Amino acid sequence: LKHLPSVMVSAVDWWANEAFSVVAAESSELGGTLIFLQHGGEFGISRIKHEEKFGKCIADKMVCFGWAPEEEPSSINLPNPRTVRYESAALDSDPQITPKTLLFCTTAAPKHPHCITNLQNDDEWNEYKQWQHDFLKEITQNIRNKTIYRPPEKDRRHGFKQSILDKFPEVRHIRDWSVPIDLAIRRSRIVAVDNRESVYLQAMALNVPTVLFYEPKFKHCRESAKPYIELLKEVGILWNCPLAAAKHINKIYDNPLEWWAAEKTHEARRIFVNRFCKTDPDWLKEWGQFLLKAYLKLDNEKTHPGSAAKCFNSL
Predict the structure, then answer these.
(1) What is the pLDDT of residues 184-209, one digit of tens each?
(2) Which single residue of 2, 84, 241, 256 has CA 20 to 30 Å from 301?
(3) CB–CB of 45/221 below 8 Å?
(4) How far is CA 108 from CA 9, 67, 105, 155, 309, in A?
(5) How far apart are the C-alpha atoms of 132 and 196, rounded to whole Å?
(6) What pTM, to 2 d.p., does this model score?
């Protein structure tokens, strides 16, 4: 490259894109600013999150979506840009998802990781697959007929999608991965998520009735997140059992908004989203000011604040 970028921003390219990593290293050596973005729904919650620790080690700034520790000046809270509401006209892009849909979102990771990790082993992934079957079996036939299964984009040789299609032929699945998940969420009556990846945060931030369930022995929480997790349990958003989650959906399906808009549920959702998936209709200006500050290096004594002020006023 003839000119290295002054600011480099990414969530996963630091370890998933070798060329990006090399350019970032060279840029950093010459005084460039590296900005690491929160990725997924476990940041700020999981007791062990290797990507989070890695990002704090390499980056000048880490962008969090509401939970940035006050004792870490390099971490900053910004709104999650992925929760921006789409234009209503775009909601017709996937006609198989209707206002009666139960959207069931799952995940996957490599069966045999190539590094030291806290991901489940092969036996535990089989247990996870059984949880999916137990959940779908427990919901009523009427709801299963209206269920859209969103399998992981990469199956990682687990066979999750095929096992669902074999056991529950009435359950349809999303075939077009070009349709943004945000649109599928917005069209659905209820979103069910069996993991702590980013989908449950997006659904809650978009204020769509959300039921979350996962095996707690696989998902340990840090102490600072436990009060927020308990809030979700108290109002029926989070369950530690697929059967209990399914029974809850059977109960609320006919009128999910009655439960979702109830004062306690509404307040628990609001508190949790503000902590872990901050939203702001004026997010673009906030992000623009942050990136401009990083580009101009306003913390540097050599920066001329007069020129920076003119740039800020133009935003």
Answers:
(1) 898 899 999 999 989 999 999 999 99
(2) 2
(3) yes
(4) 26, 26, 11, 6, 46
(5) 15
(6) 0.85
